[in-house]
Amino acid sequence: MNWLLPEYLADALPAEAAHLESLRRNLLDQFRVHGYEFVMPPMLEYLESLLTGAGQDLKLRTFKLVDQISGRTLGVRADITPQAARIDAHLLNHQGVTRLCYCGSVLHTLPASISAGREALQVGAELYGHAGIEADLEVIRLMAAAFVGIGQPLQRIDLGHVGIFRALVEAAGLPAEAEACLLELLRGKDIPGLTEACAAMASPYREAMLALPALYGGRGVLAEAALRLPDLPEVRAALAQLNHLVDQAGELPFSIDLADLRGYHYHNGVVFAAYLSGYPSAIAVGGRYDGVGSAFGRARPATGFSMDLREVARLVDRAAQKGGILSPHAGGDPVLAQCIRTLRERGETVVELLPGEAACEGPYCDRKLANVGEHWVIEAIQED
User: Fold this and answer.
1) pLDDT > 90: what percent of the chain?
2) pLDDT value at 55 more than 70
3) Is 157 exposed, middle or buried (0-12, 13-18, 19+ CB in 10 A)?
4) What is the Rg, in whole angstroms, of the alpha carbon atoms belonging to the chain?
5) How much of the chain is in helix, strand and coil states, percent to nearest 5?
6) In the chain, what's the furthest Cα-to-Cα distance?
7) Whole-number mean pLDDT of the chain?
8) How far apart (Å, rounded) are the C-alpha atoms in residues 126 and 102?
9) Model confidence over 189-215: pLDDT tens digits?
């Protein structure tokens, strides 16, 4: 059965493909008017380039193969963000702020969930060269505006900061193995397991670590966190950044989640996850990942977000399909040929039937060109 695809891979048939392309153009146009320039990195790169700064988060998700030219190991990208960082740091080499956006397929060795596929259509935007919280606020606002632009305003944006967990681990003097264990327990919201794992930790870090899963909710969580967490410089700075975001963008549906540590090995500051009504998982994620360009010769401050356009498309109603126009084969009729050209220049879909072709099975046509006297006119196609 040569027509079958591997598991968790799927074709996009005409209606779905048209819907995806419409959303892609909408989002990239929105990024463009905000000053984000479009880039198109390749599907394949040397493996070490793709995994730079990503640690274990991408290593197990990346398909690997041997380059028949160089003999080196290549990777099929599982995330476009490291590629955008490479372009900023090594190719563009701007001294100031760089704004980039992208849209392309990424491939994962395993699906992220039962409902997810292994080929995502990743679209996103990245801002390089500004270390201030204002850059984080810009990309969060851009993300929110993008969803408004496609008719799906965000229901909630969870804010977190990986620096808080990292500061607690460092202050408590935990080894790497214990850090990895606590990270997995917090990601899984495993409170009993977390309680057991923290039993030997010194106070006040034990109490702080156990408090993280409960530090979730509205703006008041930040004041509660200031009382319950140790007065460490890194913790104070992280809470100040989160307070700034909430203060400056009161129009956005922010909530706080200090146990959200997705992309922990990649991010090093503010992280955020966007949610839509009726969809259980985050529809877009992002955060700060300073220094990722260091492997390309230039460490740069960086923040951005991305989403899977295939998942977004499932939640956005498809626009009503505009019907096309059926035309007889022009053959040697220059008047009909000119009529077809004029209509296509106006943006109309005109399907010119080939000799012997009786009907069009796609695209959908609701009008036809008919010869009336010496003129070709458009008439409605009457449904049987």
Assistant:
1) 75
2) no
3) buried
4) 26
5) 40, 20, 40
6) 94
7) 92
8) 9
9) 899 999 999 998 999 999 999 999 999
Strand runs (DSSP E) across 249-317, as ranges? 254-257, 270-275, 284-288, 302-308
Does the pLDDT value for residue 69 go beyond 60? yes
Give the count of beta carbons closer than 10 Å to the beta carbon of residue 139.
25
| Architecture of the structural domain at 1-152+285-319 | 2-Layer Sandwich (3.30)
Beta strands in the chain (DSSP E): 37-38, 44-46, 63-66, 73-76, 98-107, 119-128, 156-161, 216-217, 254-257, 270-275, 284-288, 302-308, 324-327, 350-352, 365-372, 375-380
Q: What tokens does 279 get? A: 């969809």
Per-residue model confidence as pLDDT tens digits over 258-290: 998 888 888 899 999 999 998 889 999 999 999
Contact 160/215 with Cβ under 8 angstroms? no
Helices and strands of the chain, counted as H and E runs: 13, 16
Are the CB atoms for 66 and 289 separated by under 8 Å?
A: no
Tokens (6 digits) for 275: 């949610």
Burial of 233 (C-beta count, 10 Å sphere; 0-12/13-18/19+): exposed
Instruction: Supply φ then ψ for residue 369, to 5 degrees.
Output: -90, 125
What is the per-residue pLDDT for 105? 96
The answer to whether the CB of 308 falls within 8 A of the CB of 118 is no
Q: What is the pTM of this model?
A: 0.91
Residue limits of CATH 3.30.930.10 in the chain: 1-152+285-319, 156-275
Per residue in 334-352, pLDDT (tens digit) is 999 999 999 999 999 999 9
CB 99 within 8 A of CB 67: no
Q: Which of 64, 70, 147 lies closest to 109 in space, CA to CA?
A: 64
CB atoms within 10 A of CB 25: 11
CATH 3.30.930.10 fits 156-275, yes or no: yes
Output the CA angle 328-332-333, nearest 5 degrees: 60
CA pair distance 3, 191, nearest whole angstrom: 47
Confidence of residue 53 (pLDDT cuts 50, 70, 90): low
* 369 beta partners: 378
